[in-house]
Amino acid sequence: MSLRQQQKQQTRSKIKAIAKQAFLSQGIAATSTRYLSQQAGIAVGTLFVHFPDKLALVKDIFFDEMDAALRAGAQAQSTCISPIDYLTQMAQVLFSFYDEYAEFTREVLLDSVVTGGFHTKQISVITDGIVKRFLQVGVDDKTAHIFAQNMVANYWFVLLESLPKGQLGQAALDRITSLNLPFQVSYQNAARKVAG
């Protein structure tokens, strides 16, 4: 990496660190790009060279932090056998993260839903994980996909219902479990047939 590239990376990292602290303490809407550039000791134009707008900066910070949260929770996810356990553990990791970064989450999720971005892809991964667990116990492919789509719809319902309140804790996880109880029963019945 050249000296210029190193300086550019250092400036970008400095902007992100200052912005993260400011966004968390003052709020995203209340933090201006002028304030961020002043705190970083750079011109506003330089900030826009690194991040074309405030949303791009918010998303960059959000994805870095979400990646760290998902990596931290990845080991627990690999031990899940049933679809409801898998969905609940994924939701627990994500909901804790979303609560900690509530304003970031609202900004990024809105953008993602509108543009078909990261959350659409994330839900696709979760759906595939649920389908896989149903298929392992002999549920046919079409039914497994229908069950997974319904379970993910319940996840979305709880997420969107709870997100504006910034309260995605145990009550939200319990709600997902309750809404998905019929799918858990179907999974258990299929697992008994395979074992029996």
Please characterize this protein's 3D structure.
- With 196 residues, this protein is mostly helical.
- It contains ten helices and no strands.
- The longest helix is centred in the middle third of the chain and has 25 residues, at 54-78.
What labels describe this entry?
mainly alpha, Arc Repressor Mutant, subunit A, Tetracycline Repressor, domain 2, 10 helices, 82% helix, elongated
Dominant shape: elongated
Main sheet characteristics: none
End-to-end C-alpha gap: 60 Å
Q: Work out the number of β strands.
A: 0
Fraction of residues in helix: over 70%
Residue-averaged pLDDT, rounded?
Answer: 87
**H/E topology pattern:** HHHHHHHHHH
Gyration radius from CA atoms, angstroms: 20 Å
Beta-strand residue fraction: under 5%
Structural class: mainly alpha
CATH class of the largest domain: Mainly Alpha
Number of domains: 2
pLDDT below 50 for ≥5 consecutive residues: which ranges?
A: none
Ordered list of secondary-structure elements with their pairings:
Layout: H1 3-26, H2 33-40, H3 44-50, H4 54-78, H5 83-100, H6 102-115, H7 118-135, H8 141-162, H9 170-179, H10 181-195
Helix pairs in contact: 1-2, 1-4, 4-5, 4-6, 5-7, 5-8, 5-9, 7-8, 8-9
